[in-house]
C-alpha cells in the first residue's frame, strides 16, 4: 500500500469524493485503515431510520407486508436485545450526522417468498421506537447528529422520540406537530436545553394553538442568540421585540398571536433585524389586508423576500397593500413577493375580483424575480394587464397567480388571457422557470403567423427540462385542440409535461356545487389531457426529423 494511504486525511478525502454506497462498502473491506473513514462517509447522511434498523438481526425486527405497495418494520418478541445487538446498532448510529426522517417515501427493494426484489415503500412501527428507548447508552442515540428533519407522517406519530435524538451537537432541527398535548409541549419546551447551539429551527404545526402553546412557542423562539433561520407557529409581540435584536437572523417566518399590535415594537437600541433577508408574516387569527398594510408601512426593515398572509379584503385594500410596498424606496431591492389571501368569512353571492389596476403597483419593483399571489378572488387579468406586468418585471423567474385556487372566472366568463398573451409572457421573461396562469384557448384565434412567432420567439430557457407550466383552470375547445398543441409544442419545445385542472382549491370551491361547473371541469380535464398527448407526439416527430437531418448532413 502506498505510504500516502496510511495518512488519515488522505483516506478521508478519497472517501468523500462522491463514491457510491457500493464503492464505499467495498473500500471499508479493503483494509482496516480504510474501514473507519469509509463507514463515516457511508453513514454520514440517512434519509430515514430504516438503514439503521436493517442492521439488526431479522428475528428482532421483521419485515411485514401490510399493503399492496408498502411494507412495515415491526419488532418481534422472539428474544430480548442482547449487548451484542446493541453494539451493532450503535456502531453505525454514532456515525450519523444528518437524518431526514423516521421513514421515507423512497422505494426500497423487498424480496418476498424468494421471488424477485420488488420496490416498495417502507414504514416503521411504533413498537420499534419504543424498543430503541431502552438502548444501554447515554442519550442521545446519535451522538454526532447535527441536522435532523422529523416531519414525515411516521415521525409525527412518534414525536416523543425526539427526546432520544436531540443533543448538544444538533444545530439544525425541523419537526411537525399535529397535536399539542402537554407531553408534546413539555418536550418542545426543553429543546433549548437539549440543543444549546441551534442555528436553524423550524417548527410547523397544524393543531389548534392554546394560550399555553403560544407561550411555549414564544419562549423557545427567543432561546438562542445565534439563530440564522426561525419558523414557529406563533409568537407574542414581546417575543418579536426580543427577536429584532438578533445579529445573525436571516430568515424569519412567524405568526403574531392575537392581539395583532397596532404599533411595531422593535429593538430601540440598534437597527432591528440587521441581517434579515427573508420575512414571512402573518397573525392568529388572520388580520385584515388594511391592518397588514399599516403594519408593513411601519417597518423599518427591507428584506429581499417577503411573504404576507391575511384575510380577504376589498379591492382597495389589496391595492393599498401593493402601493405601500412599491412606493417605499426601501423596498426597491425586493426580489420575491408572496401574498396569500384567505376568505375567512365568505358571503354567499359575493365574488371578489383581481383586476389589472390592482396589480399595477407591483410593476415598480424592478428587481422582482418571484411573484406569487394566491387569493380566493376571481382573476380578471387580460393580455394588456399581463403585458404591463411582465414588461415592468423583466427579471421574473416565477410568475404564479392563484395556483392553489385557480382563476375562478365562472360564473363571470372564461379567462381573459389568450394564447397570444401567453406568447407575450414567454417573449419578455427570458429567465422564466415556473409559470402558473389560466388562459382562454377555447375562443382564441391562432393563425399561422402566431405559430411562426411562437417558434421564432421561444427563448433559451425553453430547452430546460425543469421548466414548469401550470395552466390551472384554462379552457380549450374541442375543435382546436390540435392547433393549441402545435402552438405549445413550438413555444415550449423541450419540456415534458404541464399541469391543468389539478389545483388544491378545486374541490373546496363553492361553485363546485353547481353541476354545470362539475361537468365543465371533467370535460376540460379530458381535453387538456388530449392536448398534452398531442404535444408529446409533435415533440417526438421534431426530434426524429432533427436526427434525420443531422444524419444527412454528417453523411454529406
From TrEMBL:
InterPro entries assigned: LRR_dom_sf
Protein name: F-box domain-containing protein
Amino acid at each position: 500500500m502506498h505510504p500516502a494511504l496510511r495518512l488519515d486525511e488522505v483516506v478521508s478525502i478519497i472517501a468523500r469524493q462522491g463514491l457510491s454506497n457500493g464503492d464505499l462498502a467495498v473500500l471499508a473491506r479493503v483494509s482496516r485503515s480504510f474501514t473507519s473513514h469509509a463507514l463515516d462517509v457511508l453513514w454520514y447522511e440517512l434519509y430515514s431510520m430504516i438503514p439503521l434498523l436493517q442492521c439488526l438481526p431479522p428475528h428482532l425486527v421483521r419485515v411485514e407486508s401490510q399493503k399492496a405497495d408498502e411494507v412495515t418494520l415491526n419488532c418481534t418478541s422472539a428474544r430480548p436485545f442482547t449487548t451484542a445487538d446493541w453494539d451493532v446498532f450503535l456502531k453505525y448510529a454514532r456515525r450519523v450526522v444528518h437524518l431526514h426522517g423516521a421513514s421515507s417515501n423512497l422505494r426500497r427493494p423487498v424480496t418476498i417468498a424468494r421471488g424477485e426484489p420488488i420496490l416498495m415503500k417502507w414504514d416503521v412501527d411504533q413498537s420499534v421506537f419504543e424498543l430503541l428507548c431502552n438502548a444501554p447508552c447515554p442519550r442521545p442515540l446519535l451522538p454526532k447528529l447535527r441536522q435532523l428533519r422529523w416531519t414525515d407522517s411516521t415521525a409525527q406519530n412518534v414525536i416523543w422520540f425526539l427526546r432520544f435524538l436531540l443533543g448538544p451537537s444538533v444545530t439544525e432541527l425541523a419537526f411537525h406537530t399535529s397535536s399539542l398535548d402537554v407531553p408534546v409541549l413539555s418536550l418542545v419546551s426543553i429543546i433549548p436545553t437539549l440543543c444549546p447551539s441551534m442555528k436553524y429551527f423550524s417548527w410547523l404545526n397544524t393543531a389548534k394553538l392554546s394560550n399555553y402553546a403560544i407561550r411555549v412557542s414564544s419562549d423557545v423562539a427567543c432561546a438562542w442568540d445565534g439563530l440564522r433561520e426561525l419558523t414557529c407557529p406563533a409568537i407574542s409581540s414581546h417575543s418579536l421585540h426580543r427577536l429584532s435584536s438578533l445579529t445573525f437572523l436571516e430568515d424569519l417566518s412567524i405568526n403574531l398571536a392575537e392581539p395583532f399590535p397596532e404599533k411595531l415594537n422593535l429593538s430601540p437600541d440598534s437597527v432591528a433585524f440587521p441581517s434579515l433577508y427573508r420575512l414571512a408574516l402573518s397573525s392568529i387569527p388572520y388580520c385584515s389586508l388594511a391592518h397588514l398594510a399599516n403594519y408593513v408601512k411601519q417597518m423599518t426593515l427591507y428584506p429581499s423576500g417577503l411573504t404576507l398572509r391575511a384575510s380577504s379584503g376589498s379591492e382597495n385594500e389589496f391595492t393599498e397593500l401593493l402601493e405601500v410596498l412599491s412606493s417605499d424606496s426601501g423596498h426597491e431591492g425586493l426580489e420575491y413577493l408572496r401574498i396569500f389571501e384567505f376568505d375567512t368569512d365568505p358571503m354567499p353571492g359575493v365574488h371578489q375580483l383581481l383586476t389589472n389596476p390592482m396589480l399595477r403597483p407591483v410593476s415598480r419593483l424592478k428587481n422582482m424575480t418571484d411573484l406569487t399571489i394566491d387569493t380566493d378572488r376571481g382573476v380578471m387579468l387580460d393580455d394588456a394587464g399581463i403585458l404591463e406586468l411582465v414588461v415592468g418585471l423583466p427579471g421574473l423567474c416565477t410568475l404564479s397567480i392563484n395556483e392553489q385556487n385557480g382563476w375562478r372566472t365562472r360564473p363571470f366568463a372564461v379567462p381573459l388571457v389568450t394564447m397570444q398573451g401567453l406568447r407575450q409572457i414567454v417573449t419578455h421573461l427570458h429567465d422564466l422557470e415556473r409559470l402558473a396562469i389560466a388562459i382562454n384557448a377555447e375562443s382564441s384565434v391562432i393563425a399561422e403567423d402566431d405559430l411562426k412567432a411562437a417558434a421564432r420567439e421561444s427563448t433559451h430557457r425553453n430547452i430546460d427540462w425543469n421548466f414548469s407550466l401550470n395552466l390551472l383552470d384554462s379552457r380549450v375547445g374541442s375543435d382546436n385542440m390540435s392547433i393549441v398543441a402545435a402552438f405549445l409544442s413550438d413555444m415550449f419545445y423541450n419540456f415534458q409535461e404541464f399541469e391543468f385542472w389539478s389545483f388544491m382549491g378545486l374541490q373546496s370551491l363553492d361553485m363546485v356545487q353547481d353541476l354545470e361547473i362539475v361537468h365543465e371541469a371533467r370535460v376540460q380535464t379530458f381535453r387538456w389531457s388530449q392536448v398534452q398527448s398531442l404535444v408529446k407526439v409533435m415533440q417526438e416527430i421534431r426530434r426524429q426529423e432533427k436526427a434525420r437531418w443531422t444524419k444527412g448532413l454528417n453523411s454529406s
